[in-house]
Amino acid sequence: MGAIHKISEDFFKDSFALIAIHSSLEDYAIGYSLNLHLKSNFKRAKTDLDVNKHSSFPIFEWDDTENDINWTLISNHSKTEEQAQKDSLFSNELSYRKHHLIPEHKEVDYFLKIDQEYKNILGAVLKQIASIPKVITAYNIDVNNLKSKNNLIF
C-alpha cells in the first residue's frame, strides 16, 4: 500500500484581489472599456478557461510589467447548447444552459482578478471601473469566503 500525500491548503494561498463587475456589455466591450479607463492593455487569451466539459469562460489578460501585477478579466457566465429530449414536444429545438464560474455570485457578470493584493490601488481601480458607461456597479469580493475559489486558480 502506497503512502498518501496531502497538499496543504496553505500551499495554494494565492494573494489576489477580486473585483465583481455588473454590466450589460459584451466581454470584448468591457475589455475595451477597461483599456480606455484604466490605461490598461487587456488582450483576449488564446484559450478559454475550461472548468469542466460543459463550460468555458473567455479570459482577457494584461501583464503590467511596470508594476509587476497580472490582471485577468473573466466572464462569470457561460452558455451551452443542448438538444431537447427526443420524446419531448420540442425535440427539434435547442435549449441553452447557463453555467457560472463562481456559483455563489450568480448575479455578477465579470470578475477582475488582480494578482498580488494591492490595497492601495483597489479604491482607485473601483472608482475608475464605476465611471465606465454601462457598468452598473463594481465592488471588492473577499476571496477567503468563496467556496469555489479554486475556479480562479489558473
Entry keywords:
154 residues, alpha+beta
Q: What can you tell me about this protein's structure?
A:
The protein has 154 residues and is an alpha+beta fold. It is 16% helix and 37% strand. The protein is built from 2 helices and 10 strands; from the N terminus they run E-H-E-E-E-E-E-E-E-E-H-E. It has helices at residues 27-38, 119-130; strands at 16-23, 43-44, 49-52, 55-57, 59-64, 69-75, 77-83, 94-100, 110-115, 135-141. The strands form 3 sheets. The protein has a 6-stranded antiparallel sheet, with helices on one face. A two-stranded antiparallel ribbon has the order 3-4. Strands 7-8 form a two-stranded antiparallel sheet. Strand 5 (59-64) and strand 6 form a beta hairpin. The longest helix has 12 residues, at 27-38. The radius of gyration is 18 Å and the shape is globular. It starts with 15 loop residues before the first strand and ends in a 13-residue tail after the last strand. The model has no long low-confidence stretch (mean pLDDT 81).
Shape: globular
Radius of gyration: 18 Å
Largest beta-sheet details = 6 strands, antiparallel
User: N- to C-terminal separation?
Assistant: 33 Å
What's the number of extended β-strand segments?
10
Report the β-strand fraction as a percent range. 35-45%
Across the major sheet, the strand order is: 2-5-6-9-1-10
H/I helix tally: 2
Provide the structure class: alpha+beta
User: What is the helix fraction of residues, given as a range?
Assistant: 10-25%
- On the 0 to 100 scale, the average pLDDT is 81
Poorly predicted runs are: none
